[in-house]
């Protein structure tokens, strides 16, 4: 590490983003209760400060964001005062919460939180978390957790960069772009659904949006933040108005996913005017963050956060007594042969997450990709935790046709964005899906009934692996794709936008 005290970059929101990146690896049924438990470890004053923050571009400045928080919560590193997460015992307590079993799904209530998990049989998984206490929505992408997720992008064909739209010089890593766009509309409507039906804000641009992810999830969150700018600007179906037109993106342990042109031009333009408030976190020595060598990370001054390792020597166990130093400067390309740096980010453990035996969502009997939505919240009237689930075929929302009306091609990877994205998902269809989500206990009972009846997809096209699959009803409305943002329409988005101001240091300490 460098010793220039002016480069110290430790900050609480980067730590919280590492926590949320780890949260994205949780199993479906435990996410709601564990999120609540995690946030309950954080002092109310810190939560309140994030909720009250108006200028998201200052979110990585602890002295500014938490100027009214108790001084005993801070420590001085170099010339900066930062929230002392070790003194508050946050990393240790949060790691223990994540590792614990949650057998009782009714134990912890939280009327301020509603979570929608969107996952599919391609090993895609993203949690959309709406939290009234933060006045924010988190979009957290899971990293690689199984064989399908690994092979969905780690192969020769899918490692070739490709453009997201015709006429653009910007290119993304193909396999990760495919994973992002195949659920992009479903994620968009999940965010808008939560903002309009749960957050209940009356003001436009008032709900903050944060996105983060670890490893593969870091690559997905980098691409998502870029695409979100176009999505939010289009405001399809006029349902995104309450959400801020700025997005805070924290990429954790991410591989390189964009080409040099995109890094230095279009992506840079969006960061430079705070449409994307971007931070990239790297534990020094993490080999995954330097690959593939022919691509780039988004570039901007002060967007890097290189952090020291806090493991015991050659051990996966985290040393909470080891000082963490993070610096806002690009380090050299030093990488270690060890995988330890990839598994520890700001004291949060990411070890032992690969499991080739477990799948969140299985493909259909005919190998069709299936999407799952899982909704969890506490009912305001009954004070009972509600868990609902629904499945549908991914190709249905790609083609605008029900499963029985098309025959999918097999064993061919052809990448055209409009052929891979869930293009036919719209506001009406999304609400139809949510209305038809069934109680999770009822769903489990139906699985047993289907097993007893030996019901399969061959006898019922809307049964897959003993799970009921919702038959979608399309209205024939021509969809509008909103993921193709080029330099030309970025200029329209950025019109009349003020350029970044230099941070102003507070004198409260």
Keywords:
509 residues; alpha+beta; Rossmann fold; two-stranded antiparallel sheet; 19 strands; disordered C terminus
Spatial order of the strands in the main sheet? 12-11-10-9-8-5-4-3-15-16-17
Query: Could you please say which CATH topology of the domain at 5-349 applies here?
Result: Rossmann fold
Distance between the terminal alpha carbons, to the nearest Å?
A: 26 Å
Helix content: 25-40%
Instruction: Tell me the strand percentage band.
Output: 15-25%
Number of helices: 16
User: What is the highest CATH level, the class of the domain at 5-349?
Assistant: Alpha Beta
- Tell me the major beta sheet: 11 strands, mixed
CATH superfamily of the domain at 5-349: Alpha/Beta hydrolase fold, catalytic domain
Rg value? 22 Å
Mean pLDDT: 87
Which structural class is indicated by helix and strand composition? Answer: alpha+beta
- The coarse overall form would be globular
Any guess at the CATH architecture of the domain at 5-349?
3-Layer(aba) Sandwich
**Got a strand count?**
19
> pLDDT below 50 for ≥5 consecutive residues: which ranges?
500-509
A few lines on this structure:
The chain is of the alpha+beta class and 509 residues long.
């Amino acid at each position: 590490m460098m010793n220039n005290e002016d480069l110290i970059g430790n900050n609480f929101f980067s730590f919280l983003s590492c926590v949320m990146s780890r949260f994205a690896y949780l199993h479906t049924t435990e996410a709601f209760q564990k999120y609540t438990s995690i946030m309950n470890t954080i002092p109310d004053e810190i939560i309140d400060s994030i909720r009250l923050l108006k200028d998201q571009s200052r979110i990585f400045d602890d002295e500014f964001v938490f100027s009214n928080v108790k001084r005993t919560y801070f420590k001085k590193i170099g010339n900066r005062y930062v929230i002392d997460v070790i003194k508050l015992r946050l990393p240790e307590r949060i790691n223990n919460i994540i590792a614990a079993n949650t057998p009782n799904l009714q134990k912890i209530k939280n009327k301020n939180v509603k979570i929608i998990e969107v996952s599919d049989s391609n090993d895609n998984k993203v949690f959309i978390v709406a939290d009234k206490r933060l006045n924010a929505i988190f979009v957290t992408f899971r990293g690689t957790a199984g064989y399908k997720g690994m092979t969905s992008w780690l192969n020769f064909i899918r490692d070739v960069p490709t453009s997201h739209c015709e006429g653009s010089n910007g290119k993304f890593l193909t396999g990760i772009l495919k994973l992002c766009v195949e659920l992009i509309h479903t994620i968009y409507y999940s965010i808008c659904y939560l903002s309009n039906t749960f957050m209940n804000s009356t003001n436009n641009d008032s709900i903050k949006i944060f996105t983060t992810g670890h490893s593969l999830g870091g690559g997905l969150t980098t691409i998502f933040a870029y695409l979100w700018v176009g999505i939010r600007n289009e405001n399809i179906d006029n349902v995104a108005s309450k959400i801020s037109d700025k997005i805070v993106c924290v990429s954790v342990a991410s591989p390189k996913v964009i080409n040099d042109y995109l890094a230095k031009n279009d992506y840079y333009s969006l960061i430079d005017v705070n449409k994307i408030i971007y931070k990239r976190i790297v534990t020094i020595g993490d080999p995954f963050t330097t690959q593939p060598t022919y691509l780039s990370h988004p570039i901007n001054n002060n967007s890097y956060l290189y952090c020291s390792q806090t493991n015991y020597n050659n051990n996966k166990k985290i040393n909470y007594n080891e000082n963490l130093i993070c610096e806002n400067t690009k380090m050299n390309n030093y990488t270690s042969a060890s995988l330890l740096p990839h598994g520890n980010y700001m004291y949060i453990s990411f070890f032992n997450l690969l499991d080739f035996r477990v799948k969140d969502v299985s493909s259909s009997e005919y190998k069709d990709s299936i999407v799952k939505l899982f909704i969890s919240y506490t009912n305001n009237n009954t004070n009972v935790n509600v868990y609902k689930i629904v499945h549908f075929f991914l190709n249905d929302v790609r083609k605008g046709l029900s499963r029985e009306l098309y025959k999918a091609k097999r064993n061919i990877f052809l990448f055209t964005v409009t052929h891979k994205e869930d293009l036919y998902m719209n506001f009406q269809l999304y609400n139809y899906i949510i209305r038809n989500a069934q109680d999770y206990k009822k769903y489990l009972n139906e699985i047993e009934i289907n097993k007893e009846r030996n019901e399969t997809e061959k006898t019922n096209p809307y049964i897959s692996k003993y799970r009921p699959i919702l038959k979608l009803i399309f209205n024939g409305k021509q969809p509008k794709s909103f993921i193709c943002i080029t330099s030309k329409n970025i200029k329209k988005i950025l019109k009349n936008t003020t350029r970044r101001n230099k941070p102003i240091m507070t004198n409260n300490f």
